[in-house]
Specification:
Number of strands: 0
Radius of gyration: 12 Å
Helix content: 55-70%
Distance between the termini: 24 Å
Number of helices: 4
Shape: globular
Structural class: mainly alpha
Length: 85
């Protein structure tokens, strides 16, 4: 599996200080549990509903892989709201 993952060049940030560039860098060394949280954070930073759905889907897959069932349930609610699942 390739680890060449980039989320785009948006410089948006939120109150926690996360930026797309910081998320990109963190994804390179993250395990499934970490990737689930990072992709969820990327969805928070996005203004585009389709992009949000993509990031939430990635988060959901990694949360499933990590066995984080509470996060899986929360992500499914968000995905359904955006027309996913």
């Amino acid at each position: 599996m390739s680890t060449d993952v980039t989320l785009g060049s948006h410089a948006s940030t939120d109150a926690s200080g996360w930026t797309r560039q910081r998320i990109d860098a963190a994804l390179l060394n993250a395990d499934s549990a970490g990737r689930a949280l990072l992709y969820r954070q990327a969805a928070v930073l996005s203004d585009d509903p389709l992009e949000q759905r993509f990031f939430l889907t990635q988060s959901w897959v990694h949360a499933l892989s990590a066995g984080n069932w509470p996060l899986v349930a929360r992500l499914e609610v968000g995905l359904r709201r955006l027309g996913g699942l």
